[in-house]
């Protein structure tokens, strides 16, 4: 790959490899319908403030990659401050969702990943959810409780794609376990891999909207790291 210098490190490159292999190998009753549903959850506590604007731009990339697949409904979920937890309506219009995202500002508070997973379970029981994407940097909750909820999401066919920002080893371990137990994947999130993150998020969104076949077509068109990694599945 001629673009190796953009990869943060060998270890994160291997994690990216695993992430795309997992996304491309997934099959599910809800994928491929042409109208997927994806929950995009974010930690909006104070430690995330420097990356919030970048995440909004990445969200736009997800929509652009799935417009040709018949649409993707996304629900924005975030937590911040003193127990504040918000979930938007399901939105297929990227501009409407971006407007909502850019109106949010970060507030100091504890993590509420338990609420995120419980919310995803409730949504999936009502109507099929193709995937949960979570971006966060730390964890202040019981890992066993989170593991139990992640397993329930796995049984419901909702893989969790966990993006970890920063170097907190506790959060990293927990995010990896949530991904594993739900049937999803883990990937690092940092400023030096912004393009990778856009590609990976777009790949998840393509899967949620169009299934494995659509992901294969996307990898052929996109090339680069996505094409290389998706080829490994076959």
Walk me through this protein's architecture.
With 234 residues, this protein is an alpha/beta fold. It has a single domain (33-78, 87-231), classed as 3-Layer(aba) Sandwich (Rossmann fold), CATH 3.40.50. The chain has eight helices and six strands. It has a six-stranded mixed sheet with strand order 3-2-1-4-5-6, sandwiched between helices.
Record field, number of beta strands: 6
Q: What is the domain total for the residues?
A: 1
What's the end-to-end separation, in Å? 19 Å
Give the name of the CATH architecture. Answer: 3-Layer(aba) Sandwich
Regarding quaternary structure, what we see is single chain
Strand order of the largest sheet: 3-2-1-4-5-6
Tell me, briefly, the overall form.
globular
Task: Please report which band the strand proportion falls in: under 5%, 5-15%, 15-25%, 25-35%, 35-45% or over 45%.
Answer: 15-25%
CATH homolog superfamily: von Willebrand factor, type A domain
Unreliable segments (pLDDT under 50, ≥5 consecutive)?
Answer: 1-11, 26-34, 228-234
């Amino acid at each position: 790959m001629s673009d190796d210098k953009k990869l943060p490190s060998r270890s994160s490159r291997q994690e990216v490899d695993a992430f795309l292999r997992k996304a491309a190998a997934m099959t599910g009753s809800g994928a491929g319908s042409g109208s997927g549903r994806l929950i995009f959850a974010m930690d909006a506590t104070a430690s995330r403030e420097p990356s919030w604007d970048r995440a909004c731009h990445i969200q736009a990339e997800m929509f652009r990659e799935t417009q040709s697949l018949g649409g993707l409904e996304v629900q924005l979920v975030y937590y911040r401050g003193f127990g504040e937890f918000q979930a938007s309506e399901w939105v297929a219009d990227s501009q409407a969702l971006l407007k909502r995202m850019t109106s949010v500002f970060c507030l100091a508070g504890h993590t509420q990943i338990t609420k995120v997973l419980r919310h995803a379970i409730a949504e999936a029981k009502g109507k099929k959810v193709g995937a949960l994407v979570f971006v966060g940097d730390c964890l202040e909750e019981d890992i066993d409780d989170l593991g139990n909820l992640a397993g329930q999401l796995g049984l419901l066919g909702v893989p969790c794609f966990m993006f970890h920002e920063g170097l907190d080893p506790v959060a990293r371990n927990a995010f990896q376990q949530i991904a594993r137990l739900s049937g999803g994947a883990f990937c690092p999130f940092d400023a030096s891999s912004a393009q990778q993150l856009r590609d990976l998020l777009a790949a998840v969104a393509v899967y949620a909207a169009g299934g494995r076949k659509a992901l294969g077509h996307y990898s052929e068109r996109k090339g680069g790291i996505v094409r290389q990694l998706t080829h490994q599945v076959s």
